[in-house]
From TrEMBL:
Superkingdom to which the source organism belongs: Bacteria
Lineage: Bacteria, Pseudomonadati, Pseudomonadota, Betaproteobacteria, Burkholderiales
Every Luciferase-like domain range: 9-250
The organism of origin for this protein: Lautropia dentalis
Coiled-coil boundaries: none
InterPro entries noted in UniProt: Bact_Lucif_Oxidored (IPR050766), Luciferase-like_dom (IPR011251), Luciferase-like_sf (IPR036661)
GO molecular function, one term: oxidoreductase activity, acting on paired donors, with incorporation or reduction of molecular oxygen
GO CC term, one of those recorded: cytosol
Protein name: LLM class flavin-dependent oxidoreductase
Amino acid sequence: MKKLGFLSFGHWSPASGSQTRTAADTLLQSIELAVEAEKIGIDGAYFRVHHFARQLGSPFPLLAAIGARTSRIEIGTGVIDMRYENPLYMVEDAGAADLIAGGRLQLGISRGSPEQVIDGWRYFGYEPTEGETDADMARRHALVFLEMLQGKGFAEPNPQPMFPNPPGKLRLEPHSEGLRSRIWWGAASNATAVWAAELGMNLQSSTLKEDESGEPFHVQQAKQIRLYRDAWKKAGHTHEPRVSVSRSIFPLMDDMDRHYFGHEGRRGDSVGYIDKDFRAVFGRAYAAEPDVLARQLAEDEAIAEADTLLLTIPNQLGVAYNVHLLDAVVRHVAPLLGWR
């Protein structure tokens, strides 16, 4: 069995054919898509976070709105760039959104990806300390975030407060019990996957990773997941971790599907540089009739290793078309693989 979620990049633009021409279109359609996805049996609604881009940059209002409109579906991110975050304020936002959703948040965080602007986190008021890289700063912010999520008091109370305080030092509010165990780290390398396991975070592995061996993408990703699980056991955590992988999967059910995505299935893995010194391998997309898709996906080693599969969606094609794609996976592909 697999949990099936969708992952939206939340694009909007006035381009010809776009159903999301404004930020309002994308935000409101994201809520509606989550509502409809829950109805057809999708397990998770996840959203990318990018700043200075015509994409979703402020996730917590959206996550809270989806939480208020749904009752079962997991609601998450993939991922929040911790270089930009005030971890204490983020704890308050996350706690509020999780309480509204009834404990369904699954927050993916990470050091971030290439940006639209140069060192965008500087505009948000953040600077690495002496000897730190921006990636180090992101991990430092993440460690503070994880600590504060535990809900322990740390702040000295005012002896003459405006309102009565509980005894002892004060914690951040609102606190959502259990959210700490639902934090995921988006790892692009084997080393950061191991680091995430040692800290007790779940693992998100996307459609790219650092090319560390020259092997096919799904083989490298499967090895990353195995290293993560080994590190989890060595760390002595008492519960089982969650692991997700992302894939572009398009069942070709009709002429419209073939028009949009019929060519995608002919492409294989690719290799490129996303930063000056970061050579990445990008996984292939899958596009075929359901029976062919099932055979192809059964050979993907990383999907076999993961418990959660996030389906990247073309959000600019609108709610109805994306429900059609997700429904095709749930009804016609997942049963052939034993996922439903």
